[in-house]
Each structure stands twice: as C-alpha cells, then as structure tokens.
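Lab notebook, bench 4. Still working through the backlog of constructs that have no structural model yet. Next entry is a single chain of 167 residues. Request: give me the structure tokens for it.
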Amino acid sequence: MNLNDLTIATDNLNQPRLLNHWQWLLPAQVEILLVTKTADCFLLEPETGHILFLDTNDGELEHIAADFDEFRAVLADPEFITDYFSLLVMAPLLETQLPDNAVFALATPPVLGGSYDTDELTPVDIYQYFDEMGALWQKLSQIEIPDDAADEPGLPSDSNNDSQKSE
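Model written out:
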C-alpha cells in the first residue's frame, strides 16, 4: 500500500472552486498537496512552507509540519497514516474504484448524528461535498456557546467538583 491507495488524483481539480466554501478557515493562500479518499486535504501555505490539514468532517484546520522534510517524516509514521488517512474506515474500500472528482463521504456527517463507519461511506462529487461541508462548518462556527453553563442552577460548580475529588 502507498499514498496513491489512500488519496485521489488532484491534477485536474479546480483548487479555488474546491476550497471556496472554506475560505473563512484557511490562510489567504494555500495549495492542495493531497486529498484523502475520505475528503480531507493536506495543504501547503506557500508563504511559510507550512503543511496544514483540513479535516472536512470536523471543520478544523491543523498545522501538521513546518516544511516538506517534516511532512515526509510524519508520512513515514504508521500511526499518522492510520489516523489522518482514515485507514481503519477506508481499509474495506481500498480496492473500490472512485469516479473522477469523487471522494468517499459519510451519508450523515458525525456532527449531525452520523457515525464514522465504513458502511456509512458513499461516493460523492468532491465539489458538492466540499461546498456543503464548508458551508455547514462556517455556520456552526458562528454559533456562540456560553461559557457559563456551570453557573446554571442545579449544576455543581467546578469548585464543588474539585473538593469532592480530593475527599
């Protein structure tokens, strides 16, 4: 097995179109390096040389490596490959051919109650998926959740929990 078994071809992807609905999360300029078969991206930030990971299921952008040498090193780590390329979920589908510009996506995203199981993966158009997930996560990122949930009546405060733990 190699990276080609876990990624899709990116040569003919329209990168600006693909990342359009993720601009709210991304640096001003990025280039797609790899797209996993489960629709996540490794991106290069040309100004800094940093390698980033766009997790479309979780709506997160993560710094992976400071440069290509460090990126090559993490790509040699089996645990990294298992985690970032969704190997456990993808393994049963490795031999399945995807149409051009398609990825495997969950029928219902986990954030909306779906489960991250192989049986839930279905081939979808990559542009449609990136548009829908980018728009979903942008809307979700705008929801403000108050920090004062522990101040609600009937809920124990953190100080009560701490004192109970030390007894």
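Notes after review: The two ends are 53 Å apart (CA to CA). Residues 157-167 have pLDDT under 50 and may be disordered. Flag for follow-up if needed.
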